[in-house]
């Protein structure tokens, strides 16, 4: 309970956003009650505010609350809300409209504009100036000044453009710029400002709101605020999570749950192979051979992978030497619009020149005849079929090697970009799918990355060229 000493104290308190909202604000006929992190946000006077938050912890509603308070406490104030899509933009206006309708008449301004994406309030003073709340889908709000809220900024396709078009709009006003989002991988302007790993952003006030700080998700917010951060994810979910949070944890992949509800930038949602996993396994000292005959003296076992290009994609060959459990890249070769007959001839030269222990070759589509021809003459050739299940196995094999630092790759920007471009998604049936969006960086379908995975895949069962022993029992 807040006790005021005199009437002026009460007026001063009601003149703040927090005092106005908690003093006279209602929603669904209930007084407004804010979480501690929401109170901290409303009290922040910094011009730049940056909020990392879990899903459904109340920031979209909070923005509408703050906007309504300022439209009623200030003259000619403008709040501009930018949302992920049009439906989210409309929802914020719906929140604001209901908050305004439930204000006491003595505090309520006249609503003079009421649309799905804009509200305008006429001042009760003689000035008759208008305050507005404008809500738009993800586009740069040029030509307006006041408060700017960039909600779920990490999820915008044009995040940097929206941010760049927003920063100047608070320079000549009392406005604040607020960036708020749940994470979406270690990428984009939201991540750059939130974590400051690329450069410092010293002017920003920062707030982080994971699920355990919200009373709707946590069974004991006070204790969780002290202890949860020190626990592994599953332990804190079981210790403090409501049934809804525990159901979410049981329904999602660990990386997805941590990103959606714990403010962790899990690169796996953007890439199955984060840069932090790939880069430590690259070496400037690794010198690749230009040709098969130029390979240095081989001390270990040679394994290779060949991804067959289709249409405008490249065919790619990756050759690794396996020694003492580690795989080190020895050669990478691209075949750009090379006829299949010439590709086959070059692979035959590889198999005749070097002691290849295994050559895994893509036999999908156009690669079928190439794989069959080579397999007929070389026992160490293993035709491989690309399916969602096999790609998951190969991707996991490479990921384990990277995690253990048991693979050495050249510090090649194109190769690193291709490996990083591979994304793991779930199909409508719930099965994993590994794919890459075609662009100039990834160069087709990340063919070189798949060639590396074919070469580095874990060998299960009898190996190519092994002698199969058959036990027989002679009767009689």
Key descriptive features of the protein:
476 residues, 17 helices, 7-stranded mixed sheet, 8-stranded mixed sheet, Rossmann fold, Nucleotidyltransferase, domain 5, 19 strands, alpha/beta
What is this entry, summarized?
The protein has helices spanning 7-14, 17-24, 36-43, 59-73, 86-101, 159-164, 188-195, 221-227, 233-240, 243-251, 254-261, 275-278, 340-353, 367-377, 388-404, 413-420, 443-456, and strands at residues 26-27, 30-31, 48-53, 78-83, 110-114, 118-122, 130-137, 147-151, 177-181, 204-209, 282-283, 301-307, 315-323, 326-335, 356-362, 381-384, 407-410, 423-426, 432-435. The chain is α/β, with parallel strands linked by helices and 476 residues long.
Task: Give the helix/strand layout.
Blueprint: H1 7-14, H2 17-24, E1 26-27, E2 30-31, H3 36-43, E3 48-53, H4 59-73, E4 78-83, H5 86-101, E5 110-114, E6 118-122, E7 130-137, E8 147-151, H6 159-164, E9 177-181, H7 188-195, E10 204-209, H8 221-227, H9 233-240, H10 243-251, H11 254-261, H12 275-278, E11 282-283, E12 301-307, E13 315-323, E14 326-335, H13 340-353, E15 356-362, H14 367-377, E16 381-384, H15 388-404, E17 407-410, H16 413-420, E18 423-426, E19 432-435, H17 443-456
Parallel strand pairs: 3-9, 3-10, 4-7, 4-8, 8-9, 11-17, 12-15, 14-17, 15-16
Antiparallel strand pairs: 1-2, 5-6, 6-7, 12-13, 13-14, 18-19
Helix pairs in contact: 2-4, 4-5, 15-17, 16-17
């Amino acid at each position: 309970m807040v006790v005021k000493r005199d009437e002026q104290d009460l007026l001063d308190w009601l003149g703040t956003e927090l005092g106005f909202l908690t003093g006279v604000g209602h929603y669904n006929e209930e007084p407004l009650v804010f979480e501690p992190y929401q109170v901290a946000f409303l009290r922040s006077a910094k011009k730049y505010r940056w909020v990392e938050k879990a899903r459904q912890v109340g920031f979209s509603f909070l923005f509408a609350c703050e906007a309504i308070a300022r439209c009623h406490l200030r003259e000619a104030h403008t709040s501009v809300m930018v949302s992920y899509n049009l439906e989210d933009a409309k929802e914020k206006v719906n929140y604001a409209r209901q908050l305004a309708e439930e204000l006491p008449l003595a505090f309520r301004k006249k609503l003079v504009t009421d649309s799905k994406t804009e509200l305008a309030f006429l001042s009760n003073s003689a000035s008759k100036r208008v305050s507005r709340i404008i809500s738009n889908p993800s586009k740069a709000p040029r030509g307006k000044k006041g408060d700017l809220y960039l909600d779920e900024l990490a999820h915008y396709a044009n995040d940097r453009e929206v941010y760049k078009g927003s920063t100047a709009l608070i320079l000549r006003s009392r406005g604040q710029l607020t960036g708020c989002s749940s994470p979406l991988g270690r990428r984009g302007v939201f991540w750059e400002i939130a974590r400051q790993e690329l450069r410092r952003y010293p002017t920003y006030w920062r707030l982080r709101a994971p699920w355990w700080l919200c009373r709707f998700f946590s069974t004991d917010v006070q204790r969780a605020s002290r202890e949860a951060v020190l626990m592994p994810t599953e332990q804190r979910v079981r210790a403090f999570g409501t049934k809804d949070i525990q159901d979410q944890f049981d329904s999602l992949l660990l990386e997805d749950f941590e990103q959606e509800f714990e403010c962790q930038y899990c690169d796996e949602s953007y890439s199955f192979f984060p840069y932090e996993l790939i880069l430590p396994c690259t070496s400037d000292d690794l010198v690749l051979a230009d040709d098969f005959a130029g390979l240095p003296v081989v001390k270990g076992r040679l394994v290779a992978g060949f991804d067959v290009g289709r249409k405008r994609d490249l065919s790619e060959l990756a050759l690794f030497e396996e020694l003492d459990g580690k795989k080190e890249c020895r050669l990478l070769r691209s075949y750009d619009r090379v006829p299949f007959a010439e590709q086959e001839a070059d692979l035959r030269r590889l198999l005749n020149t070097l002691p290849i222990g295994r050559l895994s070759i893509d036999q999908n589509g156009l690669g079928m005849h190439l794989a069959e021809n080579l397999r007929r003459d070389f026992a160490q050739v293993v035709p491989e079929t690309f399916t969602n299940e096999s790609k998951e196995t190969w991707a996991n094999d490479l990921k384990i090697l990277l995690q253990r630092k048991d693979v050495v790759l050249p510090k090649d920007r194109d190769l690193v970009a291709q490996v990083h471009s591979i994304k793991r998604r779930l199909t409508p049936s719930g099965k994993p799918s590994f794919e890459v969006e075609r662009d100039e960086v990834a160069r087709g379908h990340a063919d070189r990355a798949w060639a590396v995975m074919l070469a580095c895949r874990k060998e299960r069962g009898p190996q190519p060229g092994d002698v199969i022993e058959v036990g027989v029992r002679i009767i009689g």
